[in-house]
């Protein structure tokens, strides 16, 4: 590919930021700028498929998940909720991001139904995992009572839903 020389003026702060920036395979300012432009272009294009979307989302979330993992290791703590989110969130965002990148041509009703089904499947899988935590008398969370506190409202809502469904069955 032919390269075109350009000249840019940046502030001292921007130059320091560029110097501190760590990008795999890029050490010089020119390499770093090319890598940043390539990344911006890739984001603008959107993911090509689910694996590409998953890779992009995992890269985006990596600093957060690494920080949490290091902090948990240093403090000898663990959160089952955050572990579930580490597994669930990239899949949910990758799926949604891929669907969002395909909206340029507009979504048909079938596309909308597929999107709804895919997102609902992912949401309910996470809810099921959280409900499984409620079965454990004392799950690993930074706040040991977190699940117990939240599940009371969920139980009340589930009871109301059950009653409403039973009434609907009786009326049919």
Question: How would you describe this structure to a colleague?
Answer:
By secondary structure, the chain is mainly alpha-helical. It folds into two domains: 1-45; 48-171, no CATH class. The protein has six helices and no strands. The chain has helices at 12-20, 29-45, 50-75, 80-101, 109-135, 146-171. The longest helix is centred in the C-terminal third of the chain and has 27 residues, at 109-135. The mean pLDDT is 89.
Distance between the termini: 69 Å
Query: Which word captures the global form?
Result: flat
Please report which band the strand proportion falls in: under 5%, 5-15%, 15-25%, 25-35%, 35-45% or over 45%.
Answer: under 5%
What value does the Rg take, in angstroms?
23 Å
Q: Which whole number gives the mean pLDDT?
A: 89
Proportion in helices: over 70%
Helix and strand composition category: mainly alpha
Number of spatially distinct domains = 2
Low-pLDDT runs of 5+ residues are none
Record field, number of beta strands? 0
**Continuous helix count:** 6
How does the major sheet shape up? none
In N-to-C order, the SSE pattern is: HHHHHH
List keywords for this structure.
2 domains; 6 helices
